[in-house]
Each structure stands twice: as structure tokens, then as C-alpha cells.
Amino acid sequence: MPQTFAKSERLCSKKILSELFKKGSTSVRTFYLFPFRMLYIPQSETNPDSETSPPAIVITVPKRIFKRAVDRNLIRRRVREAYRLNKDKLGPEKTPPAYIAFLYTAKQIISFEEIEKGMKLALKKM
Q1: What pLDDT sits at residue 13?
Q2: Which of 84, 110, 112, 123 is the most buried (most CB within 10 A)?
Q3: Contact yes or no for 54/37 (Cβ under 8 A)
Q4: pTM of the full predicted structure?
Q5: Quick check: 9 and 55 in contact, CB under 8 A?
Q6: Which family does the similarity line name (predicted)?
Q7: Which residues contact 75 (CB under 8 A, 6 or more apart)?
Q8: Number of H helices, E strands in the chain
Q9: For the segment 42-67, what is each residue's pLDDT rounded down to a tens digit?
């Protein structure tokens, strides 16, 4: 996979987003790994044909904790860059999830190195 972040890799569909964040949904898998809470829908449950396409992702940073948009955007950029650089570690032996949501849970802005370390572990676990 090239180290790019194309428009097709961004999760924009309101229908899929509502399914991903619906409480008690059986199709959504979740786990917590600092500084993220990961929500994802496995490939087989959505589209078994599109195994070659990379997963569509969404990154959320809470407005309740980070009041200033500048801070939220900084964190979002760091998370996006960490994903872009490490998305090839997304379980090569099995099919990657179709949709992924990264929920930033840390209470303060952490360095890119820490975000990248958490991203690597999260992608391997998935």
C-alpha cells in the first residue's frame, strides 16, 4: 500500500457513521488502547468483494476536552499522519476492517511519537 491518504479512505457516509456509533450494535467491534478507543466494522459483514480497498476511517477528538478548534485540528492531523505512515501494518495475514473510527481519549495533547506508538499497537491488534 502506498503511503497516501486518499479521499476514498475517508469515512463520510452518514449511514455508516451512524451504524458505527450506534450503541449496542452487534456488527461493531471495539477495544481501548491508549490514546485511542477503536470502533470498527469487519470486512466480511459489509462487502466481501472489496478486499483490496483500504479501510475508510474517521478520527474524532472530543470538543468537551479540547475547547479550541486549533487543538482538535492539531491532534487530528497527528493521528492522520500516524495512520498514513503505519497503515501497512494493518494485519496483512487477514483482511482489514471495512470501516474504522479512532476516538482520541487522552486528556491532553500528546506528542506525535506517543500517538504513533499507540497507532502501531492498535493496528497490529486489529
Answers
A1: 85
A2: 123
A3: no
A4: 0.82
A5: yes
A6: Belongs to the RnpA family.
A7: 61, 66, 104, 109, 115
A8: 3, 4
A9: 876 555 555 567 788 999 999 999 99
Domains defined for the chain, CATH in brackets:
7-125 (3.30.230.10)
Helix crossing, 69-86 with 112-125: angle to 10°? 50
| C-alpha cell at position 50 | 472489496
CA 25 to chain centre: 18
Torsion of CA 17, 21, 25, 27, to 10 degrees: 50
Beta bridge partners of residue 36, listed in sequence order: 33, 104
- Say how far apart CA 16 and CA 32 lie, in whole Å: 21
Strands (E), 34-108: 36-41, 56-60, 99-104
Cell reading at 33: 488502547
